[in-house]
Fold this sequence. Notes:
The structure holds two protein chains of two kinds.
Chain A: H1 4-59, E1 76-81, H2 91-97, E2 106-111, H3 113-121, E3 125-130, H4 138-153, E4 159-169, E5 172-181, H5 186-192, E6 206-208, H6 211-287
Chain B: E1 3-8, E2 13-19, E3 21-26, E4 29-33, E5 40-44, E6 47-53, E7 56-62, E8 65-70, E9 73-78, E10 81-83, H1 89-108, H2 113-136
Parallel strand pairs in B: 1-9
Antiparallel strand pairs in B: 1-2, 3-4, 3-6, 5-8, 6-7, 7-10, 8-9
Helix pairs in contact in B: 1-2
Amino acid sequence: MANLHDIRRRIKSVKNTAQITRAMQLVAASKMKRAQDAALASRPYAELLARILAPVAKGVMNFSHPFLEEGRSNARCIVILSTDRGLCGSLNANLFRELPPRTQEIKYITVGRKAAQFIGRTQRDLIADFAISDKFKFPEVRVVIDFAIKAFEDGSVGSVDVLYPRFVNTLRQVPRMVPLLPLAGIQEMLESLGIDKGAQDERELNFEPSVEVILTDLLPLYVRRQFYSMVRGTKASEHSARMVAMKTATDNANNLADNLTLDYNKARQAAITQEILEIAAATAANEN
Amino acid sequence: MALKLEIVTPLEKVYSEEVDSVTLPTTTGEIGVLPGHIPLITEVKEGELGVIRLGELDLLAVDKGFAEIFGDTVSVITEAAIDIEDIDLDSAEAAQRRAEEALRKAKEENLHPDEVEALEAKIRFALVQQLAKKKGK
């Protein structure tokens, strides 16, 4: 059994660690609340936009817009939304596991340092990396999505997908690959996200003032807002995952400290018993 | 048969109720919507959106956006919306002045077009609020 001094030192260091992880847990918890509220509040807007567009994408074959057509290039573009910092459990690792095998040409755009590092390390084709702060507003996100839209429009990539951790609840974040451009897959996307398609109406859909006017404005708005909502979800996932990871770390450290304290007490008791035995033996020897 | 009205902004779901009828300000003029309206997607202009609910008229100020009328559901998607009851004239005026000030500075310093656009939207919505409030009085 290790000596008393060593055990005491370990208890102290474990307790210190627990204190630090607990502080990080509290910080993440307060950020998490804000990020979750924002993520959930931004969802109805994006979902409603998608719902409005769903019949449009299906029904308007005589209207052509670059966003609705198959891209000219075979290269895919994947935008990965990750975190800047680690200590958030397996959030990023789970995300990277979803990346497709390298059988075709794929270009990557990353948000957050972790994804940029991963893409660099695995020697994939990184065309741009961006950083989005915790308290971001729409313009910060717009830069990223406009870059992807530009790549799609000038034909250097044929499709744009977004890979991000979708926020389900504090304990669950699911990595999801969502096709963003072209918009032909909007119906599948609605289904994959489990969005209610709303009311049904068999009559013909009308547009005012005209299909062209509506769609020219609506399509870019939709793409940008959908992406914005995904970034919101990523932030909520990040802080949730970090909060949970730090809570687990704190609990583990406390358990370890408890076990060590038990060991410490046992060792102390053993030492005392040993001492008494020695004294008793010595006394007995003297009396003889 | 009741009509369902939803008004959603990027920040929150502002309105979600069963109503009797809705008047939408659109780029091609005001349109009134009653249950059984044909399916329609239209562009909403900044202005006042009227709702008749349980026989009472309720006005909301909305920013520009889109509206979808589909199977007795009216979904309005806009950048901002507020009930006229909740508009505070002073704060709307103050918001307008602040935004105009920021916009002037932004133009001098050649700020990013996105920022300018955001400020212009703020001014637009502040103006709509004031107009709607004054008219509602």
